[in-house]
Amino acid sequence: MAAEIQPQPQARKPCLLSTIEGFQEVVSTAVIIPKEDGVISVSEDRTIRVWLKRDSGQYWPSVHHTMSSSCSCMSFNPETRRLSVGMDTGSICVSPEFILSEDYNKMTPARTYHAHQGRVTVVLFVLEMEWLLSTGQDKNFTWHCSESGQQLGTYRTTAWVSGLQTLAEFKVINKNCLLLTHFGSPTCLLFVCGLCFVLGNVTALCWDPVQRVLFSGSSDHSIIMWDIGGRKGTAIELQGHNDKIQGLCYASHTRQLISCSSDGGIVIWNMDVTRQETPEWLDSDSCQKCEQPFFWNFKQMWDSKKIGLRQHHCRKCGQAVCGKCSSKRSTIPLMGFEFEVRVCDSCHESITDEDRAPTATFHDSKHSIVYMHYEPTAGNLLTSGTDKVIKLWDMTPVVS
């Protein structure tokens, strides 16, 4: 009697629900409308569109509005249905410039602010304070009162800002608690109760209000988890992408971080584990294992009559080692290294199979991602790519 063949269980991965096409240029920003089968998009082709899902299962634009120049960014507040749009000309269509009707079939323009002299890079509406925050390539960060339309202040930055994030628990305590990240500059300014911290070059931001942790993604492919609220000063590194980080979002109910990058990768990180800080790299003139001199240590090379070796560092202990003493590679997921990295021979022996157990899953979106948005109510993820296509994903198989 032949044995019955049991089907192999399918791996848990995001499920592609729909694609939205028809754009002439790249979609700069797009968001999923909470509790609605709808999407709002702004594009470099100068269009603002509201897409609603029809009975056929396809998304069709219920609103198609053409602006005078390219749309660079936007902010949508679902409670008030206010849509704030940044322009390439430097003018900002801010709330209540566009108010969407309850059925999302009509968009009413109201007011235009001329807050910047260059392309607007970020616009963010904060309902609790009735503030409209914006940054531009003119290196100015401005904030307006959305009720009166008056500019409340401006701040000159050393480089144009690509990210802006409010820290939820500080908004009521101190209205100046804002986070600015500089693109093209090695600095990132964090304003918390009047204090400024240097964080590093950042391209994407995400805030966990429960654990009071800030996640920052960088053009160097890395993600760093900053302990802002715990006051321990720890910074945990996450390495799992091969290209620039383009978006971050955090599912607080499952303690999972979702990250996307330019190479099309979607990574789901399990943050409900005890992670470790990566060690500082130690300085030495010779290998800290075999004591062979490095190539700049002329005195020891002369005394020992040996050719200097190239310096490396073990990613687990941080010691300076030569290539012979660090010939092994290993993943170290609890240190954030989901890819194999260089480790010294002694550390390689100490790493167990349990230590190598992955803490992240990797998925391919099959398009180069430029923007992402996660809607936790339905567990759906939106990705916009350089292929001028929006993809909608069901993340419940992996974020649960």
Automatic annotation (TrEMBL):
GO molecular function terms noted in the UniProt entry: zinc ion binding
WD repeat residues: 20-51, 202-228, 238-272, 362-395
Keywords (A to Z) from UniProt: Endosome, Metal-binding, Repeat, WD repeat, Zinc, Zinc-finger
One Gene Ontology term from the biological process aspect of the record: positive regulation of fat cell differentiation
Record SUPFAM superfamilies: FYVE/PHD zinc finger (SSF57903), WD40 repeat-like (SSF50978)
InterPro entries the UniProt entry points to: WD40/YVTN_repeat-like_dom_sf, WD40_PAC1, WD40_repeat_CS, WD40_repeat_dom_sf, WD40_rpt, WDFY1/WDFY2, Znf_FYVE, Znf_FYVE-rel
Record carries keyword Metal-binding: yes
Transcription regulation among keywords: no
Principal location class: other
Start and end residues of each FYVE-type domain: 281-352
Any Gene Ontology CC annotation: early endosome
Subcellular location: Early endosome
Annotated protein name in UniProt: WD repeat and FYVE domain containing 2
Organism listed in the record: Mastacembelus armatus (zig-zag eel)
